[in-house]
Amino acid sequence: MFWTLLTAFVAGFAGAGFGYALRHMSRQRLPKGIIPVSAGLAMIVATVGLEYGWYSNVLDTMPADTVVISERTQQAWYQPWTFVNPWVRGFIAHSPSESVETADSSGILAVQVRIHERWQPEVVMPILVDCANTRRAEVNAETDFTADGQPTNATWLVVEATDPILHSVCRGGQSTN
To answer: Which residue would you say has higher pLDDT here, 147 or 117?
Structure first.
């Protein structure tokens, strides 16, 4: 958030300089109000650019095989342009290269699900996915594994085959979007 504020501040100064230059080139025919208007417009444009660029910038920092499971977009009355093109405020993703089977032929995959939200730190949630039985479970401190890779003390959540996480992980990392 600090960098966004700094960017808006610098954009405001640049916009004010642009407005001043326009007024100077017009030999003072433009009103003095062009300077703060230019500063305000530059700050709005910079902020909108940062909001729309966040999603692609975060994806660029992730592994190349990252699969986006779902996106959360935002529309707001105070951002009327979002009704034409909503911006992505958050998303859930995983990297198939980071997924491993708990043991050979166990059929249970350990997956790192990454939850990204604008203005929040990344949350990495390790989960277990059992494709054959359409269920998944969060890995926590009580989760142990037997010698054949079967988890013990896991609280399984039975889900439909269309569950976005299950669908993406079990289909070999194909996006559900």
So the answer is: 117
